[in-house]
Amino acid sequence: MNIIETDRLILRKLAIDDAAFILDLLNQPSFIQFIGDRGVRTLEDAKNYILKGPVASYERFGYGLYLTSLKEGEVPIGMCGLVKREALQDVDVGFAFLPQYWLKGYAFESASAVLIYAKTTLGLKRMLGIATPDNHGSIRVLEKIGLKFQKMVKLSEDDVELKLFGLDF
Description:
By secondary structure, this protein is of the alpha+beta class. It has one domain (2-168): 3-Layer(aba) Sandwich (Aminopeptidase). It has helices spanning 19-26, 29-34, 43-61, 106-120, 136-144, and strands at 2-5, 9-13, 65-70, 76-83, 92-97, 126-131, 148-153, 162-168. Strands 1-2-3-4-5 form a five-stranded antiparallel β-sheet, with helices on both faces. The two termini are 27 Å apart. 33% of the residues are buried. The mean pLDDT is 97.
């Protein structure tokens, strides 16, 4: 079931059948560098990641990260959606794409649509975004969709410092 459609993209809930794609995405050097190593090394790990992360979030909050595919051919290119982290007061917009789909406007297109969905369908009043200070591409997308830098934060005591962005609807 599609959650969001844009001119070029379809965003839908992740399912166990997406494990091979998730295994690939989470092991991209750029994902590990900018988002973190999730320890997903096998298809079974990827299935567990989907169940304990996005699927659990759908069940608990009614939203989560969505598989993002090109409308043409339904080719999976990344994920984009909403994440509720214990360390942050509000929901944040998150996205990750395979490197071959960078610089084509897909992150902006999907994140913009997710913001509209968060505001109009879910009734959220505030949106956050986080990025490592060296993740210039993600920072550009967060700023382009209207989020403004707020402060530096750590999601846990032993975590790296992240730039926190925010937007009130």
